[in-house]
Amino acid sequence: MNLLLLSNSTQYGQGYLAHALDAVTGFLPAKARLAFVPYALADHDAYTAKVRGALEGAGIEVRGVHEGGDPLAQLASADAVFIGGGNSFRLLSALYRTGLRDALIKAVGDGLPYMGASAGTNMAAPTLRTTNDMPIVQPPSFETLGLVPFQINPHYLDPDPSSTHKGETREERLTEFLEENDVPVLGLREGSWLRVEGERATVLGERAARLFRRGAAPQELPTGSDVSQLLRGEPRFDA
Fold it and tell me: Where is this chain's protein located in or outside the cell (predicted)?
């Protein structure tokens, strides 16, 4: 696997992908034909144009998989694929509907570089169960791509001790997940990402990540942390 999994695509006060542009351009092949999957948002053309504008200066040719009427052909002709953020349920539903889910699993398994941001990063996990999104549509299944054998929670937010809000914190929600499932969850704070190269996985970016495991206290993972052991685990759901 060759993966770049961003927590977010837009950092406060910066343009689209600007905070991670060096990582993105270093990850993508030179002069790559990048297949962009825009299905997490409703306006596919505008979303593709935003990605194209962010990457054209680096010599990356961006093609929306919806352009030309054959998403599978667009994927097959690409040097890399990028799945952008938005609503994870809408995105996954579209991946099933278009046949891209199975095609992506095979292509990435065969070595196609995969980049995700937010909802696109959720797709790399085994299931959708740790997304922050509202289920605005119902996909055929919660099963995503399973490119890594653990869950990821993009946009991870730390509890705010001064808040008067009485709803669950992100930490409480992930603890509830672990009460029912024995699967590590990597919380990626905004500005951070996970790089997977074969059997090696590394937390990178501006901020530390937070790892949740059943029966253990959450663990802080500073940027640069090697988390390759997570790639060797076996998830147990409904356990």
Answer: Cytoplasm
Question: What φ, ψ does residue 111 adopt, rounded to 5°?
Answer: 115, 0
Strands 219-221 and 209-212: antiparallel
Scanning the structure block, which residue is given the tokens 């055929």? 140
Active site annotation includes 118:
yes
Query: Which tens digits make up the pLDDT trace of 60-115?
Result: 999 999 998 899 999 999 999 999 999 999 999 999 999 999 999 999 999 999 99
165 in active site: no
156-165 contacts, C-beta under 8 A, 24 or more apart = 156/7, 156/187, 156/188, 156/189, 156/190, 156/209, 156/210, 157/189, 158/189, 158/210
Strands 61-64 vs 80-83: parallel, antiparallel or unpaired? unpaired
Of 7, 9, 118, 192, which is the active-site residue? Answer: 118
Which member of 7, 19, 88, 133 is catalytic? 133
How many other CB atoms are there within 10 angstroms of residue 220's CB atom? Answer: 9
Which domains, and CATH codes, for the chain?
2-149+189-207+226-232 (3.40.50.880)
Contact 9, 82 (CB under 8 A): no
70 tagged catalytic: no
